[in-house]
Structures are given as C-alpha cells and as structure tokens.
Q: What sequence folds into this?
C-alpha cells in the first residue's frame, strides 16, 4: 500500500470518527464527564487529521514540482 493511499484511508477514518462523535454529542443525553471525554477525543482526532492533511499536502507539492 502506498503512503498516499494509507494517508487517505487514515483521513477517511478520522473524519468518520469525528462525525460519529458529533452525532453522539447532539443526539444523546450525556453526563458532563461523558461530554468531556468525547470533546477530548474530538480534539485529538482533529489534531491528527490536521497532521495527516499537512502530510498529504506535502506529497501533492512534491508531485507537482
């Protein structure tokens, strides 16, 4: 599997995870500690997604040169 394919797969997985977290936050009554944990997970996923998107952008820049 190429590095770009792996990045795209990981990006897709993170986006799905973020979507599920948001749906859970807004569709279910949750205790404050549950909300806090979901928000923490969202922050981690968003940071990792940003990192992966930057890596993907680096690959695209290398290929366009």
A:
């Amino acid at each position: 599997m190429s590095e770009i394919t792996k990045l795209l797969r990981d990006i897709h997985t993170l986006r799905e995870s973020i979507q599920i977290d948001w749906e859970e936050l807004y569709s279910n009554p949750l205790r404050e500690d549950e909300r806090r944990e979901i928000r923490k997970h969202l922050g981690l996923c968003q940071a990792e997604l940003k990192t992966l998107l930057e890596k993907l952008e680096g690959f695209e820049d290398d290929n366009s040169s």
Remarks:
- Residues 3-64 form one domain.
- The two ends are 23 Å apart (CA to CA).
